[in-house]
Design brief:
Chain lengths: 111, 115
């Protein structure tokens, strides 16, 4: 079964800073998900990626399949980016199984 | 229009009671899921259904019984509630059966508190 590790667990930044959140997994996969959980509790899918890089606004997600590692970057961070960011991969590797989730990175951006 | 909706948003009940949480999606998706998020905010799959058929049951006690009357609805019934059932329950859906490689859309969550 796949295992997912996220770092850091908690992150505090000043508005405008560049943020990086890391995710490592143990079994090769065909896709990795980044999710955002708002302080109010709602969960939104940010990215699903299988190779290279994806960008949406100030958010950039990268994945290195060989190293089994993905990063989520936030440029010009803003207090509204404060949330928990969660990485998820297929439980059994490849595209098999359901999703197994990391424990999340709690980001707090101060004005 | 809400894509994935859940009711109720909050549920407070006594130990031993039976309760249900309802979920509906209007996205036309084939696959629906129930997730449990515990007090440490750790998300874990409970069930997945594809076109009203159970696909995955991840070692969930049989006090939990999902019911899918049609592919747009997946309800969760819990019998004999225990303190450890207190959590936030999220419903989600995806277009494809292979949810691990398809974007999932989450409901707002139901916070269950068992006293």
């Amino acid at each position: 079964k796949n295992e997912v590790e996220q770092s850091p667990q908690n992150l505090t930044a000043q508005e405008g800073e560049f943020i990086t959140i890391n995710c490592s997994y143990s079994v090769g996969i065909s896709a990795l998900h980044w999710l955002q959980q708002h302080p109010g509790g709602g969960i939104v899918s940010l990215f699903m990626l299988s190779s290279g890089k994806k960008k949406h606004g100030r958010l950039i997600a990268t994945i290195n399949i060989q190293e089994k590692h993905s990063s989520l970057h936030i440029t010009a961070s803003h207090p509204r980016d404060s949330a928990v960011y969660i990485c998820a991969v297929p439980t059994l590797g490849g595209s098999q199984g359901n999703l197994i989730f990391g424990k999340g990175t709690k980001l707090s951006v101060k004005p | 229009d809400t894509a994935v909706s859940q009711t109720p948003k909050y549920l407070v009940t006594q130990m031993g009671n039976d309760k249900s949480i309802k979920c509906e999606q209007n996205l036309g998706h084939d696959t629906m899921y129930w997730y449990k998020q515990d007090s440490k905010k750790f998300l874990k799959i409970m069930f997945s259904y594809n076109n009203k058929e159970l696909i995955i049951n991840e070692t969930v006690p049989n006090r939990f019984s999902p019911k899918s009357p049609d592919k747009a609805h997946l309800n969760l019934h819990i019998n004999s509630l225990e303190l450890g059932d207190s959590a936030v329950y999220f419903c989600a859906s995806s277009r494809l059966l292979a949810g691990a490689t398809d974007t999932q859309y989450f409901g707002p969550g139901t916070r269950l508190t068992v006293l």
